[in-house]
Hints:
This protein has two helices and three strands.
Amino acid sequence: xxxxxxxxxxxxxxxxxxxxxxxxxxxxxxxxxxxxxxxxxxxxxxxxxxxxxxxxxxxxxxxxxxxxxxxxxxxxxxxxxxxxxxxxxxxxxxxxxxxxxxxxxxxxxxxxxxxxxxxxx
Length: 121
């Protein structure tokens, strides 16, 4: 008997993985990736900066409370609505999202460097 498996590799520049059973968590991968049966792939129509994908995971992960103990997200992910910043035309403001995450990263790096400096001196 011969088995054939179809494996689809996802583009890490357009896709976020979402564990929808157990711990509900969205994740940005550093490289292209495969998913298992208990994970969904949320794909954008076009490539975005990884900072934008990270912004989207922050917004999605804030929905975790809706899928806490006893509430499985399996069938509800497609109905999930997330609020995104938009420009004056109602288009998602991708540039703002990227800058927001870059600033968060910068703040965290500054805190770590400050801690390291205090520790060394």
